[in-house]
Amino acid sequence: MEPPSATPHRRRVHWLGSLLTVSLLIFWSPSITAQLTIESVPFSAAEGNDVLLLLLNPPTDTLIYIWYKGESRDNNNKIASYGTGAPQPNATGPAHSGRETIYPNGSLLFQNVTLEDTGIYTLQITKTNGDNEVLAGQIRVHPELPKPFITSNSSNPVEDQDSVTLTCDPETQNTTYQWLINNQSLPDRARLELSTDNRTLTIHNVTRNDTGPYECETRNPVNARRSDPFILNVLYGPDTPTISPSDWHYPPGANLTLSCNAISNPPAQYFWLINGNYLQSAQVLFIPNVTVSDGGNYTCHVHSNATGLSRTTVKTITVSESVTKPSIQASNTTVREHEGPVILTCLTNHTGISIQWVFHGQILRLTDRMTLSQDNSSLTIGTVKREDAGVYLCKVYNLVSSSTSDPLNLTVKYYDPAPESSGLSGGAIAGIMAGALAGVALTAALVYFLCIRNTGGSGPF
Questions:
Q1: Any signal peptide, and if so, which residues (predicted)?
Q2: What residues does CATH 2.60.40.10 cover in the chain?
Q3: Which architecture does CATH list for 242-319?
C-alpha cells in the first residue's frame, strides 16, 4: 500500500513512496546480523505533515506485527496489526484514529500528524515460534509556527531619557527567538539587553540611531518564521539650529531672507526675535527693502513639545549705506622741516566704517614719527622731515562701497647752507688778486713792445 500524497499547503512528505519501497525491500531481504530498530522519518515533523515509523531489519519469521500507542501493550492502546499469513492481514484497534496505516514490513505511517501524536509507540513482533520481540519508536511533532510580530512598551521614547522593551509575540513552546537590526544580528552593545529566552529585547537610553528596523525570528526543529520590520519612533532634538545664508551684510533696499533649520523628530517650532524682541513664528524670515534700522541681532529659537527641549542661534545682520566722498583737514599744509606736529584728519559722515591712508599712491607705511588714532581717522606726524612732503589721500569703505578723498599736498620747507670757504684770510685773497692784475698788466706791456719793435724794423735803410 502506498501512502497518500499530501496537498501542497499542508506541506506533507512526498518522499514516503520511495522510502516505503526501500523498507519493503528490507523486509524481503534477510539479514542475520543487522539490528532490529525503529526510526522516525522525518525525525521531527510539523503539524499536518506525515510521519513514518520505519522498522529496519525486520525478522523473516514474523507471524504478526502489533502497534500500540504509548509504552503499555494494553488492548485499549492497540492501533493496528498486520498478520503475515492471515486472509485479512490488516486489523485496527481502539487507539486507531483513522490516520494510521500499517505495512507488511511492520512500518507504521501517520498521516496529517497533530501535536497529540507526539510520544512513544510500541511495536510487538510475534514470531512463528511464539517468541515476542518488543521495540519502541518515537514521534516528535512541533507546531506550525505563526508569523511573529513585535510589540513595544513605549510608542514614542525620548532620546537619552527612555528605555524601550521590544517583545516578540506570540509566545510558543519549544521555540527559539532571534533578533535582527537592519537585517543583521544584534551588535555587541552595553545598551542592548536580551531576556533569558531571547524573547524580549531592551534598549537602554535610546538614541536616534536605534530606530531600526527591528525583526524577530522564531524557530523550532521544523520551521522558522520572521516578523515584519518594526521601526522605533525615537523622539529627539531639536539640535542647535543653523541660519542661512551665511551673508550678514546688506545694503539698504535689499531683501533680507533668513532660513532657520534644526534637526528634530518631530519637527520643531520656530520663532524669530530681533535684539531680544519677538518678531514672528516661522521657519523662514523675510524682510523686504531693509533699512539701516533693520540691522541687529537676529535670534532663531526652536522648541519641541515632544522632548521639551529648546535651542537658539544668533546671527548679527548689518545694513550699511554706500559711503560718500570724505575730505582731509590739515592743521598745516606748509611746514618747516623739524617742526610739527602736523595733524591730518579724514572727515566723513559715516560711522562703522574703515579708514585707510594713502601716500604717494601707496598704502601709508607708518614711521616712528607717525601715529594713528584708534579709528584711523587722524594721522599725526610728530616731527616733520622733508621725506614727509607729498600727496596724501584718505579712503573710507564698508562692505558695500568705498570712496577716496581729494589729494592733499603737504609742503615741507628746508634750508641748504652755502659751501664751506677755503680758509684763506682776506689779505691773502687781496694779494692774490693784485698779483693776478700785475701779471695781466705785464703781459699787455710786453705785447705792446714787441709790436713797436716789429714796426720800427720794417722801414728803409
A1: 1-34
A2: 8-142, 149-226, 242-319, 327-413
A3: Sandwich (2.60)
* pTM of the predicted model as reported, rounded to 2 decimal places: 0.60
Grid cell listed for 106: 511492520
* Residue 106: half-sphere exposure toward Cβ, Cα within 13 Å: 33
Q: 8-142 domain in CATH 3.40.190.10?
A: no
Q: Specify the CATH superfamily of domain 149-226.
A: Immunoglobulins (2.60.40.10)
Q: Exposed, middle or buried by CB within 10 Å (0-12, 13-18, 19+), for 175?
A: buried
Distance set, CA 136 to CA 51, 71, 75, 120 (Å)? 15, 8, 17, 7
Decide if 112 contacts 12 (C-beta within 8 A): yes
